[in-house]
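pipeline/complex-builder :: batch 7 item 3
reading input block
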Amino acid sequence: MRTLFVLALAGALFTTACTRRQQTEAPSAAMAAAEAANKVAPRPVVLYFGGPSGLLVPESRTLPLPESNAAAAGLIAAAVIEGSANSAIPRLFPPDATVRAAWLLPEGTAVVDLGGETLESGWNTGSALEMNAAYSLVQSLAANLPEVKRVRILIGGEQAATLGGHLDLGRSLAPRSSMVEGIGGNGAPGSAPAPSGTE
Amino acid sequence: MKKILVVIAIAGMAAVSAGRAQTVMATLKTPTGERPIRVVEQSGNLYLPAEEATAALGGSLTGSRQGYRIDLAGRTAGFTADSRFGAAGDELIEMPSPPIFIEASPYVPWQFFRDLLRTTSDLDLTWEPGARVFEVRRFRLDSVEAQISVVNIEGMTKIVVQFPRKVEYSVRREENAYVIEIPNPIRTRAADQTFTSPLLDRVLVRENQIVVNLASRDIAGDAYAIESPFRIVLDLQRGASPVPDAQPSLPGSVRRPAHPPGVRTIVLDPGHGGKEVGAIGPNGLVEKETTLAICRRLQSMLASELGVRVILTRDSDELVPHDQRTATANQFRADLFLSIHLNASHSPAARGAETYFLSLEASDELARAAAERENAVIGGASAPGVSSDLNLILWDLAHQEYLRESSRFANLIQSEMNVTSGVENRGVKQAPFRVLIGATMPSALVEVGFISNPQEEARLGSAEHQNEIAQAIVRAVRRYKEDYEARLGGPAQDPARVGSAPSTAAPAPAPADRSGR
């Protein structure tokens, strides 16, 4: 059975990091029902941030989140962008990065629209930091929202070539255990297998 | 003064008028009949009333400005008030502008419905402006989807037409155009496409023809095909000897380059450039300048020590699009492509080199979907439902041979870089890096050190260490070249390409310090 289609921009989900214009019309009955379903309650989540080894490390948190996972996606993404609760752990995304919107597509893709002057004007960084930043979002969304199989990142509402000069954003990113310390990672993010012998 | 004010007033009125919505009547033809429909013109875009158009197609529209859902023929789609991106299933649909609202009713650019139908069904939507008619019609079952792209390289314009399968084709010259013709009707996202090129006027799709209108008559072209995926390429150059009129290429033929096997041409790609400066070290070292300096040293060493032809994707501080970098390598039919970068990490202690080769990292789920749908895609009948992810997986599968060779090449570079850097092996990795996508030869990206580490930054800025890096890469290329050319002598090798990588492979030399992590 096809997952219920929900198209929910972050403007409906969180109010501070979003640039959407104010809605002036009265909510429809469908929207009122959706809002009723989105009762906010504390929920334990696991977020991923950069660890000292260069891999991502999990951090357990409790966030006030709506019951609807579609509505929670933007808030989880925003928490990842803001960085670890431990101030000793460096932030992966630029300080002015924001989540403009996030929504879930019915076949398992979470779309996260990032904003902020640094990202929108071209983030100049190295591939290691860029990979960690992108996959901190991917791993965090996939770990907490079972319906998320992959993440598509937009920049400033547009399809961007890369996040920081290297990583292709023209496609969705699937979770990679090799990016995470102690799961698939071995000190080398994205480690490739040795070349095989005769195929 | 009065005249100036009048001009300003007229200009202001014109500007207001250009953005004003104008309602006009049109006709919507569907397989079940036709009806008048009220459409809106605004700022050069044409909008359809979402609810009415959805109903005419047999679907239903629900929701509010926070998100509209369309249920149509068992598929779901949607759009929101402020976004140019709608969705059909998991496919994003890009619109020329966000939806507009008139009397609280949503109107969406008509292209949304066209792409929605193309993505979810075997239907297409066309617009005839003269007759003011929208028409929904079925694709012919034998039609073939084509993706048209244009790349400008060193004064040449390459028109690349990609198909989901191999097709018979011919190319003929008309007075001011080239006409690419295949036996089947052609489907494209737009029948009239304009590209930024000094050599090109526009590209029109007419039934089973792609008409490439030239900017002037002194432009000549060279057409050929390459495989995996199948593409017809038309190279245009100004002032070249004109191709004899109406000289068709051999139908269905694939021109294989007359290219002796072995590593003869290497394209080096200095990372970043122009306004894309790359990473900047804590003491001000700039990545784009350092990568160019290393590549210049490497170019000289490779040419003198290995006798190979070496081409840089940029030899100055200029911004070169990612796609154009690999296009340059493809254009010169390079045997190796190497992109050189400096790394940066959130951890200032991070140090050492990392070498990447391409990964399109299909998830298990997507791989299953690919397996299920591959036959339909290759048959071409179900192309409207093919996702971009799936296309990438198929590209990935088709390029396994390049990936195997890329893995060998990357391991050799990492091995030699470990010796030079004298630090722990950070390993060979795979990542979906934009600059590696599209290379039709073994390719890798090496991060030669961490500019974010102050000690490494100082070394990376020195001529001595830049020479050490270049020497390490020369050693790696020499090892790859010798290994590859030795393997070419085997009986099972097929050096012909599209791609010079052999279809069989001997075990790669192990990195010297694989166990030294």
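note: Helices of chain A lie at 29-37, 69-82, 117-121, 127-144.
queue -> next item
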